Amino acid sequence: MTETSLTSTAIKSPGDSLAEGAGVGDFVALLKPRVMSLVVFTGIAGLVAAPGPIHPLLAVVAILCIAVAAGAAGAINMWYDRDIDAIMTRTRRRPLPAGRMDPDEALAFGIALSLFAVMLMGVATNWMAAALLAAANGFYVFVYTMWLKRRTPQNIVIGGAAGAFPPVIGWVAVTGHVDVEALALFLIIFLWTPPHFWALSLYRAGDYAKAGVPMLPVVAGAAVTRRHIVGYSVVLVLASLLPAAVGTVGILYGAVAALLGGAFLVLAIAVLRDTGEAAARRLFAFSILYLFLLFAALIVDRVSGTAGIG
Predict the structure, then answer these.
(1) Do residues 84 and 211 make contact, with C-beta atoms less than 8 angstroms apart?
(2) Does 185 share its domain with 174?
(3) Do 149 and 83 touch, CB atoms closer than 8 A?
(4) Which of 20, 27, 269, 304 has the fewest CB atoms within 10 Å, i.e. is most exposed?
(5) pLDDT, tens only, 1-55
(6) Which domain holds residue 251?
(7) Please, what is the end-to-end C-alpha distance for the chain in angstroms?
(8) Of the residues 123, 148, 178, which one is the last residue of a structural domain?
(9) Same domain, 57 and 82
(10) Which residues, in sequence order, are CB contacts of 192 under 8 Å at separation 6+?
(11) What does the DSSP 8-state code read for residue 11?
């Protein structure tokens, strides 16, 4: 498959000529709700961890804006990737490749939601938070989806920055500025993303190869990918301790981060030793739980007041 065929979005996908009218469920699917839920939760963690007060109603609006913007980015991603989504087994039933939605409808939906979320965030909280929200969406759509994903095996490494924005946005919605504590939260998600997606790509390598997406196992092989997973996992575990080190949270979070990090490393090493799919599937599943529990511990620690910020 040539680069031209990979990067062109003008070509028609199977869904372009078959759409007969999308249902509510299709619009919900377009928002990638499972991805959105994790984005929203990390955004809440950033908002709760931030020093200073915020009115509860404005806090709810800020989280709503993060959720809507994340869903909008997912919709535009599905619009752009509808050609390769039609090829891959795990994505071919999405609304666009399955022919249940018109591509122009999906694009307009995503753009409208993006504009709404950014403007509402600026009016309700502050324009720095709105600018970061716009930057996160722009990075995911233009840098990751349209540039990196089909061109380099570093797509997940660099593109992971898009998913790392939510806790920073939540933080800035409260404070109006970016602090080193917020950047520590950004770094955790940034480093979590590669081992999370590389674990998935190990047992979905055939799908990615068929679609021409240069994920690391496709380009460099499974052995290299397994080593990269372990390397990033070690750095991730160290980075996960930063919120306690800089004083954002206290000993409760630190203890949970250490325990979860140990489990993550055990599973990552198992991936290195096991050339089958089972270990990679376990790490992928645990990585989602890991991030949820890590940020849940941050919220609980912050609310319980064991840290010195506030």
Answers:
(1) yes
(2) no
(3) no
(4) 20
(5) 333 333 333 334 444 444 456 788 889 999 998 889 999 999 999 999 999 899 9
(6) 179-310
(7) 55
(8) 178
(9) yes
(10) 160, 236, 287, 290, 291
(11) S
